[in-house]
Amino acid sequence: MENLQLCGPPLTKNCPGDDETDEKPRGPENDENQENQYKELVTFGFYVCIGVGFIVGFWVVCGSLLFHASWRYAYFRFWNNINDRIYVTTQGWSRQDCRENLHTKW
Questions:
Q1: Where do the structural domains in the chain lie, given as residue ranges?
Q2: Are the C-beta atoms of 37 and 24 separated by less than 8 Å?
Q3: Using one digit for the tens of pLDDT, what is the confidence trace for 48-86?
Q4: Where are the bilayer-spanning segments (predicted)?
């Protein structure tokens, strides 16, 4: 079965309205083209948008913690519980290692 309506690259059949002169060159010239496109993307406006996005995101998170006491308490309680779990887990490991060392020495 063939689909006779397919055309354009990578096929050899050109689509109606496509000119062969519009095709982009393949090879080292195309790499240079991509580099120029990257340089055009990273402009002063790009960095301004990144900065504005960071500031807005930062104040959305910190502002919500600043103005909502219940959220602030829940947030810091969450991190306190994580800290406790890490401490208990690491202490369990270190005590287990100490017990194993005592039994092997005697």
A1: 37-68, 71-101
A2: no
A3: 999 999 999 999 999 999 999 999 999 999 999 999 999
A4: 44-67
